[in-house]
Amino acid sequence: MKSGKIKASYLQQVIALGASGIIAIQFIFLLAGRPTLCLNYGCQIVDALTTVSPTYFNLMGLIYFQAVFWLLRWSKHKTKGKFDWPALLLLAGLVGESVLFSYQLVVVKVICSYCILIFTCVLLLNVLHGLRQTTYGLVIFTASLLPFSTLSFTSPGVATDSFSLDQGVYGVKTCSKPSKQLYLIFSSNCPHCINVLEALENCSSCDLFLNPVDRIDSSPISGIEERAVYNPEINRAVLSLFSIKEVPVLLAKNMKGYTFITGEHQIINYVRQSCFTRDPLLYFDSNISDNNKIDLFTESDGECSIEINCEKEQGR
After folding, report:
1. Do 144 and 77 lie in a common domain?
2. Rounded distance between C-alpha atoms, residue 263 and residue 247, angstroms
3. Global pTM?
4. Among candidate residues 127, 150, 173, the one where a domain is terminated
5. Are residues 142 and 267 in the same domain?
6. Both 169 and 145 in a single domain?
7. Fewest CB atoms less than 10 Å from the CB: which of 80, 131, 192, 312?
8. Are 279 and 171 members of one domain?
9. Are both 132 and 236 inside the same structural domain?
10. Residues 42 and 104 sit within 8 Å (Cβ to Cβ)
11. Is residue 249 within 8 Å of residue 262, measured between CB atoms?
């Protein structure tokens, strides 16, 4: 039994040291401005939704795993009956990782592969610490996941500080006296998006911000002032937050937040009434009630999935 505990302790130290090495590499890449260690776009989405810089997150992770490693080494020499400090630190790490994992799984609905790797390391460290530690860990994970699965994280009116669309702007088309600010989330291979862009090209009284969900090589319409840096994953993150899986989506900024309009025909009708007149008209839709958590105008067609090439969908 004692030899089994010693082996488990050594394996824990190896995992803690390995996780430290991975995070150290990630930390160096972040400082150097190089692409980070991630197998999917989920990492960029999760990074965009945090109020703390990924650099600090990784620094805290590096300190955590180093603390676990040295505490495990120290605990080998502790006398019987002393408090199990490594167990407490491992549970604390599992609390943090469970909350982050639950947020990605339930709220964002996008999983960061790098985050899963770190979560797995913390989980294995707890399992290797014994049956009692595993039981405590299971309770903690369940207690973290259940609240996220029962709560709604979209606020009435979609507050303007909920996300930063400006980080995903490819380019801007401005007018002299704008009556509205419009953000168009679109895909470069979606025919419905192209039709909307053509309708917006001669827009005369709205400032237009283009927010693609993919990388585009050239400006889709004339008169666009391109930005040097933009992140399409921000735009995917916005759609994920509101469980929207199709484009085009138009966001009209207002005092309380944003009005969401989806689908080619709804968007074009909105633009024609709001951006081509000297005194823009209010946009009404009988399907919208005052009980909605956000202002959302939708239609069932005139849309492309952000995950599937729309041209392939039409050719089936």
Report:
1. yes
2. 7
3. 0.57
4. 150
5. no
6. no
7. 80
8. yes
9. no
10. yes
11. yes
Supply the range of the domain harboring residue 128. Answer: 2-150
Q: What is the pLDDT of residues 14-61, one digit of tens each?
A: 999 999 999 999 999 888 877 777 766 667 666 666 777 888 989 999
**255 shares a domain with 215:** yes
List the Cα angle 53/253/196 in 5-degree steps: 105
SS in 3 state form for the chain?
CHHHHHHHHHHHHHHHHHHHHHHHHHHHHHHHCCCCCCCCCHHHHHHHCCCCCHHHHHHHHHHHHHHHHHHHHHHCCCCCCCCCHHHHHHHHHHHHHHHHHHHHHHHHCCCCHHHHHHHHHHHHHHHCCCHHHHHHHHHHHHHHHHHHHHCCCCCCCCCCCCCCHHHHCCEEECCCCCCEEEEEEECCCCHHHHHHHHHHCCCCCEEEEEEECCCCCCCCCCCCEECCCCCHHHHHHHHHHCCCCEECEEEEECCCCEEEEECHHHHHHHHHHHCCCCCCCCCCCCCCCCCCCCEEECCCCCCEECCCCHHHHHHC
Query: Within this chain, do residues 299 and 221 fall inside the same structural domain, yes or no?
Result: yes
Quick check: is 157 in a domain? no
Segment 171-207, tens digit of pLDDT: 998 876 777 888 999 988 888 888 888 887 777 688 8
